Amino acid sequence: MNREQLRPALEAMWQDFLSLSPQTRRIHDLLETDNPRILNDHIALRTFDLPRVNIDRISQPFVEAGYSACGEYHFPVKMLFARHYEHPDEDLPKLFISEFRVDELIDEADDEVRNIIHQLVSQISDSDLERDDFSYSGRHWKIDYGTYQQLQRVSEYAAWVAAFGFRPNHFTVLLNALQSHGSIDDLNDFLLQHGFRLNAAGGLVKGGPDEYLEQSSTLADPVEVIFSDRVAILPGGYYEFARRYPQPDGRLYQGFFAASADRIFESTDNRQPGF
Ligand code: OOG
Ligand code: NI
After folding, report:
1. What is the ipTM score, two decimals?
2. What kind of fold does domain 3-268 have according to CATH?
3. Close Cβ partners of 207 (under 8 Å, ≥ 6 residues apart)
């Protein structure tokens, strides 16, 4: 992907994301009444760490278009690893790309889950893999509901990727750039009053000035997923809100904070009330 193709690609990702998180359109419209310019801090993508689809592969078109790898984050309990990417054009959102570490499934009982993930990824055709839009092209395999459930018992994250494939799971409002609802507590109250459900894992607000990053997020919207044997309603995408604080050198922190990210992943857990 070249630099000229980047903005249309980000726009296509936004449109795809709205179908995964219809609440985002409603929240965006509500915020837009007082805030003519809503900036997107980052977009998040998920994958498996198998060579055909790992972070390096998913990030490749964006790297070709000028993004470079910055911070790295480890989530040992969830068996996840993530890297964030920044673009020299500071108007462009950062990317937060994570992967499920299949080889960290070490129990014999997990053999089957490892095999399932290998089997899903092997269904992707070489020609699809070469597409410029592969990183946000959705699911490339057939899967039945029982297999989804089998993954879910081991990893909510792996089950989400198996159900939805490669597509953004959230976009993020940069609170620093808002004229109203700039305080995260204010914004959370406003969203709760309007009936939106927020991710309360570890408290509504994750991080703060000491971490140079303060975040909250909605719970993912219910979305219909077509399995080979039935249709199910599963948590799809969510909207995130982030305030960045200046570091001692005066520059706004641009990285992420693993302990907060760990809980934000749970915005798509399929054991929320209502599912
Ligand atoms: C990513 C969760 C972490 C952040 O801003 O810390 C995150 C995900 O749900 O894929 O986005
Ligand atoms: Ni995020």
Report:
1. 0.99
2. 2,3-Dihydroxybiphenyl 1,2-Dioxygenase; domain 1 (3.10.180)
3. 213, 214, 215, 257, 259, 260
